[in-house]
Amino acid sequence: MRIVSGIQPTGNLHLGNYLGAIRNWVRMQDAIESDGGDCLFFLADLHALSMPHVPAELASNTREMVAALVACGIDPDRSTLFNQAQVPAHAELQWLLNGTARMGWLNRMTQFKDKSGKNREGASIALFTYPVLQAADVLLYQATHVPVGEDQKQHLELARDIAQKFNNDFCAEDAPVFTLPDPIIPPDAARIMSLRDGSAKMSKSDPSDMSRINLTDDADTIMQKVRKAKTDPEPLPGEAAGLAGRPEAANLVGIYAALAETGTAEVLAEFAGKGFGQFKPALGELLVAKLAPINARFVELRQDRGALDAILHKGAAKARALAAPTLDAAYAALGLVRG
Ligand code: TRP
């Protein structure tokens, strides 16, 4: 079993990033060792070129994301943690796969349609071929499993189609170059919403800092944000159905359940009939207890550029070695002479 996954580097990391993708990666890293497998996790910095970007911000976001991943529990000695830009095999394999990927396949990608919007003619070529780079990311390492959000499932299916067509067109039946990866879509992927508006996702770009719990927030700030979080006047219901039409209440209960690693039903069983005057302090304390150790490591590590660059440097060396055999096999299968 080999798990490979990527994340786009962003700044202002918050609770939604942690409970969304990052914690899931940490769990996989901790579970896989007993199976004799391994994990590769990378910063998809090459993918960031598909949208307009500020170079200095990309560099600082990449380092910031590494600090967050390590603070949250990704161990660079146990997992291979790196950024694409230091492993040229990603870009190389993408080009090789561009010969196999079909225009029709990419034209069906919903992310391209969403992100290019009405301005298709002005979208970058990188936005269009983004899923081919993503296929290269995982095929390069013979990934068996790829944890992704629901929105990335279509890209994973494309990676399988590309792998299958390449194996078919260029490989002997008993010697395929690529493994077909399976997506792992976490069933309980916590959707963390804004503390000010239960219908909007918690987001780094919300102008109100009160809308999110940042990984840099200290205990007092967390308690204050929870105290001020938007709610309704009703007490908590006894069952999940009672949260219908109460997005703010549902969000706070969801955050509690995700942090306590339990379900909505269990949380409601404990707090049924109680008002937010009682629930909010409990939620605040739970947040502080879970986030304080992460916050301490994050705040320290994010300013240690030397340590972050060393982590990436070491991870990239491991990744380059793991990628080499597959990249060589792909060149050879295509008849490219590299004597
Ligand atoms: N496209 C993914 C996202 O936006 C990030 C990503 C890039 C990725 N390459 C990948 C995820 C390879 C899984 C595997 O979330």
Could you name the key traits of this structure?
339 residues, mainly alpha, Rossmann fold, Tyrosyl-Transfer RNA Synthetase, three-stranded parallel sheet, two-stranded parallel sheet, 12 helices, elongated, binds tryptophan
Strand and helix map with partners:
Blueprint: E1 2-7, H1 15-32, E2 38-43, H2 55-72, E3 80-83, H3 89-98, H4 103-107, H5 110-116, H6 125-139, E4 145-147, H7 153-170, E5 182-184, H8 219-228, H9 247-260, H10 264-271, H11 276-301, H12 305-333
Parallel strand pairs: 1-2, 2-3, 4-5
Helix pairs in contact: 2-11, 3-6, 3-12, 6-7, 8-11, 9-10, 9-11
Bound molecules: tryptophan.
Report on the structure:
A 3-stranded parallel sheet has the order 1-2-3. A two-stranded parallel ribbon has the order 4-5. The mean pLDDT is 96. The chain has helices at residues 15-32, 55-72, 89-98, 103-107, 110-116, 125-139, 153-170, 219-228, 247-260, 264-271, 276-301, 305-333; strands at residues 2-7, 38-43, 80-83, 145-147, 182-184. It is mainly alpha-helical and 339 residues long. α6 crosses α7. It is built from 12 helices and 5 strands. β1 (2-7), α1 (15-32) and β2 form a beta-alpha-beta unit. It is elongated, with a radius of gyration of 22 Å. The protein folds into 2 domains: 2-190 and 304-333, HUPs (Rossmann fold, 3-Layer(aba) Sandwich), CATH 3.40.50; 209-300, Tyrosyl-Transfer RNA Synthetase, CATH 1.10.240.10. Bound molecules: tryptophan.
